[in-house]
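QUALITY CONTROL LOG
STEP: pairwise intake check
CHECKER ROLE: data steward
CRITERIA: each record must contain a sequence immediately followed by its structure tokens, with no blank fields

ENTRY 1 OF 2
RESULT FIELD BELOW
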Amino acid sequence: MTVFPLQAFKDNYIWILLDEASGLFDCVDPGEAKPVIDYAQKTGFSLRAILLTHHHYDHVGGVDDLIQFYPSIKIYGPNDVRVNSVNVPVNGEQPIEIGSNAFQIMDTPGHTSTHISYYEVEKQWLFCGDTLFSAGCGRVFDGTIDELYQSLLLYKNLPDTTAVYCAHEYTTTNLMFALTIEPSNKTAQDYLKKIRHENVSCTLPSTIALEKKINPFFRVNQSEIQKYAEINKVDPNDALAVFSFLRHQKDKF
């Protein structure tokens, strides 16, 4: 089983889960159909299932066209009328099996009110949509900041070796922001230098271990971040308040 991205739009990733033995593949959040159709036609492999994390167009925009090619395909996603193409609605703690993959569904609202994530427990793969990014997290749209904070705590409690498959390539900008909040973070400094020096175009997957070291939204209890919050008249001992402040600052960055 191989996981790799197809590029969509400017910075979206459509994650492909390829079962080489069967010639079948699944895709996560196909905002565009063309990259998926082109891949299938080029390789001769066939799309088996679609996994959706939330309703935003850049994640679901390609589904209707894919249905034209694969009319009986299973489409997993949140139980939300805004994702009306879903024919297998799923929710938190619900296990699903797709081929050799066994996913635990995680309710991870915040970015949106019904956002879900897919965690393959044995392989330790996390498909987190727009809730978690490398060195960052998603904006709050119709969810709440408290929900987003709780969702990131769920991720933080996953094994350190978990591979994190985010839906956008935002790592460089996120690291630049992180270093305005925690400028002495040597790991973040070195990682940003590495990305720039090696001209890395795809920084994903990340890992939970790496995110604990570089992601300010995972690090609200670190002293330098607490001092930054206190200078800005935010209670440094209120983790949710610090988290909310960081998200507000990132919105303006």
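ENTRY 2 OF 2
RESULT FIELD BELOW
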Amino acid sequence: MKLSIVIPAHNEQQNIVRCLDELHSVVWEQNLIPHEIIVVNDNSSDETESVVQSYMRQHDQVRLVTRPAPGGFGRAIRTGLDAVTGDVVVICMADLSDSPADVVACYRKICDGYDCVFGSRFIEGSSVENYPRVKLVVNRFVNTCIRLLFRTKFNDLTNAFKAYRTSVLQDCGPYKSSHFNITLELSLSALIRNYRIAQIPISWQGRTWGSSNLRLREMGRRYLCTVLMFFFQRILIRDDVMAEQMASQQRRRERLGTDASPLYRLDDALAAVNEELAADRTVSAAVVTAAEPAAGTI
């Protein structure tokens, strides 16, 4: 499967070359994964665009998409997703906060059969460096609330570093978020549709140059609106999701009935027998109950 790496970049001239070099080294030179890297120049005012253009002359796998105003992290991600040609999409930051080795780990998990892979900085095996204390406290509070609200084990849903099958993104889209809340829109839209999702530990470190564009107060309202939207959407689409799952199971039963191995057909037959026995026990219990006099009667 072909891997598409989407990198939103706003004023990242000091980071982008090193980011691309490390990705190329780990993804291609060490693992020979067929891939493309899509850098989305998000209305940068520095030399990000010219730096990437120069890099592209020696690296065919790198593509540049330039966004005009208005900018925004979510708009950049949406533009990058529209440009992918691969089967697996990984969203990676240009500031070197995400490890290229984790990109490969996510890709391998998708190849194992998962639909999505969520990177977590807060499970066993993960590592975090230079995370501002205030943002860390806010992150843990917000993600705990989301985890409880959606009754899920995933504990870092606001993190942008995730991998998706392209078909999943197409099924869940189109996306609307223009800012950092797109990280929640992407993950929650897949979560409420019951896709097969894996969570893996990742390494994360604070940026080495420049400043973060995330503003906590500004994003609080957007995160809240996104969470509430998907909480109610989960209720609205529940019947549709169940209908799709039942149709999928029916197709599987039909397929097993025609070309499955005898072992699989035997399993289905045993399941049917067990269902009939359970029904017989229910009927027998009902008959016995009906035959007994009710309490207080003669």
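INTAKE CHECK: passed for both entries
DESCRIPTIVE NOTE, ENTRY 2: Confidence is low (pLDDT under 50) at residues 260-266, 279-298.
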